[in-house]
């Protein structure tokens, strides 16, 4: 399989402003606060009862965003931002001069046309499916995370665990039952940490009066952690009371991680409490122990990063800049270091844009003529997430264009900045320059090769709110997301005009290349739909794959012939799409539990042709052979338990780039159904490795984490 070449080029400078270091306020949770032994307990919970009432808005439960006219809402939003800025005097003073904008307009990628699963390039969704059917709550707040064998999708009313290969529903419960929380549970978030091999989820809870009436506002959040990489095998949780005085509450919280911390960052409304950022000691959390944490003053709508560098001692938070006369045209980054200090701030500039609609009546209408009140209510500059990967910090958010004068649409802007030298690597828009189509509620994911995908909601006068994404390979021109796919169409008017409030993207941990996206679509009851984007290596003329053990999700295309003699490890999803013939040659093995497809369609479509399943071979003992590594993570040694493996085997240790580090030969008794080997790991540095056991009959591959 090919790896894509990362093309790096610096295109802009940023403004490094005066920094302030703020020490976190420490706290300790005697933990965990509770346990759920398995997902079956959630299914049996008395909280697992769907609402039977008519569809209702979240705003009927709490004033998430007040419905004001555009001018009043803009004034309120700026006042809230100003309150946050005043907490950081040094930052506030330095923002009186905005950064210098890029001299040229970023590249523009057009959103896809209204065609479900449109094939703009040869990269097509590997699968689409129904994520959730919240039905009664708007917004949906769609979320997705991928583990080795499962995906977890969430919305404001329910949570599902799905089989990753087939999309089959393993479990479906209400959001309250999933988190074990009674009362009003909202704003779910979920992520998968590939280093700790855990799912981590977040939900907010609130009871008490609407608005900011003095007292009796009980606001809390729950951090839910899976026992291992299987989300069906139980969770435990930590609870935090947002304000012991019950005068403040948390809204729109986001989640992130690095090697030291799990971070929760939310907006604090009402009262005098200003602490909206919480960082938890990750090693203590994963040990289900009493956990130390630190709090910091809120950063309005700041997104903590998913940090895919397990040596970086900084956890970045990213937010859009503060208002100025030209609109919001820049990005601000902060970080929390390993000493639990918040360091503020660096700003990065791009071409100008507006944060609020100067005339919302000019913005596109949905099919059916309904207005889209998102432009009147929120302002568009909210981030849904951010990602740190390969030295770059990535994020995306909606904007209003044009940058001056009367706005005509909501568009999507993405960034990649280098916080190591305070420069902008690339920025660009997903934009309909004719002003007929709006895109909004975007999120972003970046894989190991620096390929990126941005998913978002989309509509115009010809179709309802629908789901789409644009992607780029690392070698594509900077500032572009040229590959657009409209992957699921809405079927009914969004009468409320609320949409969202957010989408999600996730990287598959098996190959660290494939990606998953989820969005809300308008169907009359609101639904979330997901899509899987298999890792893609381009379209060959003729190609062959042999002596390769593939582990993950991918798609291989050729205009001529594809010949494969490789072994597909379980669990994996692999597609072969040729123009003339797919030959699954001698030596081709797909392990039990894999999904593979062979198509005759070349590089121009995705239609099923001459499938050749007769060449699919599964060796009988491979359905029995298995390997277990423990402890995992390991320190100086680990154990390998082999089941139904006998004879001579080769043990191989690979690094994350599949470079061979060590190889040894071992013998397992021929009559042994189970054997346990003790192996030295003291020579390995901290990080992720692949352990392989193979002989003429079997080939097993598992991940091992080393943490000295």
TL;DR of this structure?
The chain is mainly β and 708 residues long.
Tell me roughly what share of residues is in helical segments: under 10%
- Beta percentage is over 45%
Looking at CATH, which topology of the largest domain would you report? Answer: Methylamine Dehydrogenase, Chain H
CATH architecture of the largest domain: 7 Propeller
Shape designation: globular
CATH homology group of the largest domain: YVTN repeat-like/Quinoprotein amine dehydrogenase
Taking all residues together, what is the mean pLDDT?
Answer: 79
Our count of domains comes out at 3
| Cα-atom radius of gyration | 25 Å
How many angstroms separate the termini? 32 Å
Q: What top-tier CATH class of the largest domain fits best? A: Mainly Beta
Please tally the β strands and state the result.
Answer: 50
| Distinct helical segment count | 6
Q: Could you give a short account of the major beta sheet?
A: 11 strands, mixed
Oligomer: single chain
**Class computed from helices, strands and strand pairing:** mainly beta
Low-pLDDT segments? 1-17, 51-70, 80-98, 117-123, 605-623
């Amino acid at each position: 399989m090919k790896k894509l070449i990362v093309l790096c080029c610096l295109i802009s400078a940023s403004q490094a402003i005066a920094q302030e270091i703020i020490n976190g306020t420490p706290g300790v949770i005697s933990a965990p606060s509770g346990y759920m032994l398995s997902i079956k307990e959630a299914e049996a919970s008395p909280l697992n009862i769907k609402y039977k009432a008519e569809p209702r808005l979240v705003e009927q439960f709490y004033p998430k965003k007040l419905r004001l006219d555009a001018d009043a809402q803009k004034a309120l939003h700026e006042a809230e931002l100003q309150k946050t800025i005043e907490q950081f005097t040094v930052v506030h003073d330095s923002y009186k001069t905005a950064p210098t904008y890029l001299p040229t307009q970023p590249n523009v990628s057009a959103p896809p046309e209204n065609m479900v699963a449109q094939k703009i390039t040869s990269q097509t969704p590997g699968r689409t499916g129904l994520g959730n059917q919240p039905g009664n709550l708007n917004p949906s707040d769609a979320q997705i995370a991928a583990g080795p064998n499962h995906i977890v999708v969430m919305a404001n009313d329910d949570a599902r665990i799905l089989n990753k290969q087939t999309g089959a529903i393993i479990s479906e419960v209400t959001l309250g039952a999933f988190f074990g929380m009674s009362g009003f549970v909202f704003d779910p978030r979920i992520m998968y940490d590939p280093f700790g091999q855990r799912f981590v989820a977040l939900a907010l809870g609130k009871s008490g009066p609407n608005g900011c009436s003095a007292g009796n506002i009980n606001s809390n959040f729950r951090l839910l952690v899976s026992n291992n990489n299987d989300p069906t095998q139980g969770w435990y949780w930590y609870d935090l009371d947002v304000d012991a005085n019950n005068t403040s509450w948390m809204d729109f919280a986001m989640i992130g991680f690095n090697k030291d911390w799990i971070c929760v960052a939310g907006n604090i409304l009402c009262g005098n409490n200003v602490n909206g950022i919480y960082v938890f000691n990750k090693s203590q959390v994963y040990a289900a122990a009493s956990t130390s944490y630190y709090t910091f003053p809120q950063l309005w709508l700041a997104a903590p990063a998913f940090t895919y560098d397990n040596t970086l001692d900084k956890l970045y938070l990213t937010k859009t800049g503060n208002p100025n006369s030209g609109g919001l045209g820049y990005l601000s980054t902060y970080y929390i270091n390993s000493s639990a200090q918040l360091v503020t701030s660096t700003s990065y500039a791009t071409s100008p844009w507006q944060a609020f609609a100067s005339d919302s009546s000019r913005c596109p209408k949905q099919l059916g003529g309904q207005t889209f009140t998102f432009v009147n209510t929120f302002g568009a500059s909210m981030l849904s997430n951010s990602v740190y990967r390969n030295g770059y910090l990535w994020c995306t958010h909606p904007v209003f264009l044009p940058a001056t004068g009367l706005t005509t649409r909501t568009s999507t802007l993405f960034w990649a900045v280098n916080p190591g030298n305070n420069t902008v690597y690339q920025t660009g828009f997903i934009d309909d320059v004719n002003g007929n189509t709006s895109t909004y509620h975007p999120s972003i994911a970046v894989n190991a090769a620096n390929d990126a995908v941005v998913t978002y909601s989309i509509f115009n006068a010809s179709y309802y709110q629908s789901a789409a994404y644009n992607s780029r390979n690392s070698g594509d021109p900077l500032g572009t997301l040229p590959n657009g796919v409209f992957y699921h169409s809405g079927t009914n008017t969004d009468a409320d005009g609320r949409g969202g409030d957010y989408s999600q993207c996730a990287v598959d941990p098996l190959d660290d290349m494939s990606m998953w996206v989820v969005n809300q679509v308008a169907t009359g009851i609101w639904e979330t739909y997901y899509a899987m984007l298999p890792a893609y290596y381009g379209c060959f003329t003729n190609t062959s794959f042999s002596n390769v053990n593939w582990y993950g999700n991918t798609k291989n295309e050729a205009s001529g012939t594809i010949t494969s003699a490789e072994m597909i490890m379980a669990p994996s999803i692999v597609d072969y799409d040729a123009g003339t013939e797919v030959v699954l040659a001698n030596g081709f093995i797909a392990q039990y539990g894999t999904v593979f497809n062979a198509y005759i369609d070349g590089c121009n479509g995705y239609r099923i042709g001459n499938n050749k399943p007769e060449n699919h071979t599964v060796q009988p003992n491979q359905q029995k052979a298995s390997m277990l590594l423990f402890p995992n993570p390991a320190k100086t040694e680990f154990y390998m338990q082999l089941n139904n493996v006998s004879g001579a085997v080769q043990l191989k240790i690979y690094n994350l780039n599949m470079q061979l580090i060590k190889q040894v030969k071992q013998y397992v008794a021929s009559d042994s159904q189970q054997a346990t080997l003790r192996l030295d790991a003291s020579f390995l540095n901290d990080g992720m490795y692949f352990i392989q056991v193979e002989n003429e009959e079997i080939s097993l591959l598992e991940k091992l984490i080393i943490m000295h």
